[in-house]
Write a structure and sequence with these properties.
Strand order of the largest sheet: 3-2-1-4-5
Radius of gyration: 13 Å
Largest sheet: 5 strands, mixed
Helix content: 40-55%
Strand content: 15-25%
Order of helices and strands: HHEEEEHHEHH
């Protein structure tokens, strides 16, 4: 099932990240070993609607819709616009720059948020946003 939402163009990146995690058992295990957290992404589109996706790098190494896998909660929640998430995944901006300018809000363990960068970098090479 696709994770993409037509009203959130950058959400196609979640499919790419999920495919990347599924493509190699060793890469998935490595990502889980590095991440050790559940990352929630709350995106807001131009119409003002919000939707959430999560990347489970605590146990399974999968991506799904919602703020966390069922029965769990996110360790880190990243809130930003759909447009800025698209730029982040495409490598056109950095998370630190978005955070410093107030365009990226982090709730939870801020230090764990930094562990997300290698996973997003893998998506950069494969995403066509």
């Amino acid at each position: 099932m696709s994770l993409k939402s037509d009203s959130f163009p950058s959400s196609a990146a979640f499919d790419v990240i999920n495919d990347s995690l599924k493509s190699s058992d060793s890469e998935r295990k490595d990502a889980v070993k590095q991440g050790k957290a559940i990352f929630a992404f709350k995106l807001k589109n131009k119409a003002g609607h919000e939707e959430a996706w999560n990347i489970d790098l605590k146990d399974k190494g999968i991506v799904s819709r919602g703020e966390a896998p069922e029965g769990q909660k996110a360790d880190v929640t990243l809130s930003l616009s759909d447009e800025d998430f698209g730029k982040l995944v495409a490598g056109k901006t950095q998370a630190q720059r978005l955070f410093m300018s107030g365009k990226l809000k982090v709730k939870g363990d801020v230090m764990k948020a930094t562990k997300m960068e290698p996973v997003l970098k893998k998506a950069q090479t494969k995403a066509k946003l």
